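> forwarded from #structure-qc
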């Protein structure tokens, strides 16, 4: 999926302010939730700087003098060096849904606005402590994959792709998110953190790629919803458009239709929630009608 196939969402408001203190408070929460894949949890190959002592031995020609251990050298009368197991930095993969359905919002901002903000915050946290961040942007014919990078370069690249917008109406794929997750499962071999930022459609095809990712990674699912997706408005007739396919329809609405719609949506959301729970994934729901950053902080800290 080329950026040329994406457009800024009409009526986009942007994610809003991202105050540094609020983002900093999230850092500890994300670190605690991702325990098991953080720095030092798994040794990297080779030797180097770290916190886990691998070897205390006599100095050999070619050893870095910075590894000299004064106490052991003084005690034995022979120069000794300490060698540590190098720590593995956390790799964070962000799966960002840029499908046409994300360009929707009836409250403070669009779903794509909230998703963009969440992706930027998680990327900011991901590059801390020498971490790396990669991106899979899915929603169109082919996903965009940015390999993991560290530092400011990773943040700039991610922000540029986020700013490219969403896939236009009618150009989406119903299986785009599942395809993006499968693509990530094939390339993300080392355990890390996978953050899926999407409206999480009720799609049976999501189960297998999510389960495969959850076997190796810590999975964080950030579900972005709009109130109008949960209940129909009190009108007699609705003109509807399927953003993924561009298909139009007009529907007569009465109390029975509204009740059946609400019951079906509630059931679908419950099935998605239960799937994530069974997989051991972290699940956060953000809404377009609320301050999403404090909600994200409350769920992760």
């Amino acid at each position: 999926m080329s950026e040329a196939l994406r457009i800024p969402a009409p009526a986009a408001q942007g994610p809003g302010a991202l105050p540094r203190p609020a983002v900093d408070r999230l850092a500890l929460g994300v670190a605690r939730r991702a325990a098991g894949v953080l720095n030092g949890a798994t040794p990297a190959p080779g030797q180097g700087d770290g916190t886990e002592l691998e070897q205390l031995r006599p100095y050999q020609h070619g050893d870095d003098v910075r590894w000299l251990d004064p106490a052991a050298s003084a005690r034995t009368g022979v120069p000794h060096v300490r060698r540590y197991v190098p720590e593995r930095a956390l790799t964070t993969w962000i799966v960002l849904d840029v499908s046409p359905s994300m360009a929707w919002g009836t409250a403070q901002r669009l779903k794509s606005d909230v998703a963009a903000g969440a992706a930027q915050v998680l990327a900011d946290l991901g590059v801390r402590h020498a971490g790396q961040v990669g991106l899979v942007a899915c929603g169109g014919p082919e996903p965009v994959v940015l390999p993991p990078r560290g530092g400011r370069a990773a943040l700039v690249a991610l922000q540029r792709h986020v700013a490219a917008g969403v896939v236009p109406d009618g150009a989406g794929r119903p299986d785009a998110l599942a395809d993006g997750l499968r693509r990530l499962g094939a390339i993300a071999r080392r355990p890390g953190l996978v953050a899926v930022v999407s409206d999480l459609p009720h799609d049976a095809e999501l189960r297998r790629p999510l389960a495969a990712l959850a076997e190796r990674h810590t999975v964080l699912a950030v579900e972005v919803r709009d109130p109008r997706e949960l209940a129909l408005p009190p009108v007699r007739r609705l003109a509807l458009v399927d953003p993924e396919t561009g298909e139009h329809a007009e529907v007569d609405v009465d109390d029975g239709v509204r009740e059946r719609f609400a019951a079906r949506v509630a059931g679908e959301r419950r099935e998605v929630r239960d799937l994530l729970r069974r997989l051991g994934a972290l699940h956060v729901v953000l809404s377009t009608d609320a301050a999403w950053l404090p909600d994200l902080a409350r769920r992760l800290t």
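QC bot note: The CA atoms of residues 182 and 209 lie 5 Å apart. The helical segments are 20-33, 70-76, 111-126, 151-163, 176-187, 207-216, 255-278, 292-300.
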